[in-house]
Amino acid sequence: MQIETLKQPTETQLDQLMTLWLAGNLAAHPFVKADYWRKQVSAVRQALPTANLIVASDDNQFIGFLGLQGHTIAGIFVADQAQQHGVGTALLNAAKAQRPKLQLSVYIANRSAVAFYHHSGFQVQSQSIDKATNQPDYLMRWHR
Q1: pLDDT-based confidence at 17, cuts 50/70/90?
Q2: What are phi and psi of 54, to 5 degrees?
Q3: Hey, what's the torsion of the CAs at 31, 39, 90, 82, to 10 degrees?
Q4: Number of C-beta neighbours around residue 28 at 10 A
Q5: DSSP calls for 72-131
Q6: What's residue 60's pLDDT?
Q7: 41-96 pLDDT, tens per residue?
Q8: N or C end: fewer C-beta atoms under 10 angstroms in the chain?
Q9: Measured between alpha carbons, how far is 93 from 66 in angstroms, rounded to an integer?
Q10: Are 62 and 53 in contact (CB under 8 A)?
């Protein structure tokens, strides 16, 4: 597995990232209507090239990525077959190496993600309701 920062993704690379993004959101958020994620595809595809993208690849195929906007992790997405193999941890460690502090929002109902972030040193700072999905979420922060 290779971890690197992806600058100026190609259309083919964006296709791979979007496949990971959509599959990851559908799998991790069964409590959010699938249609919500499908309606976000165009906006996310446009936003991805503006983010700091840290990608994990194996045999020249992306198996995961993390999107950073400043100190905010917009999301971590790992291919189904690559989960539980350290990919998410490797992506998060790469982000921690680039930033002295990080924050993210995570749906409370996504218990495995909340546990992953707690295990990775993130602490809950506040709780709110995501207006787009009406789901409760945590704002979590980490710092060196």
Answers
A1: very high
A2: -105, 120
A3: 70
A4: 19
A5: EEEEEEE-GGGTTTTHHHHHHHHHHHH-SEEEEEEETT-HHHHHHHHHTT-EEEEEEEET
A6: 86
A7: 999 999 999 999 999 999 889 999 999 999 999 999 999 999 999 999 999 999 99
A8: C
A9: 11
A10: no
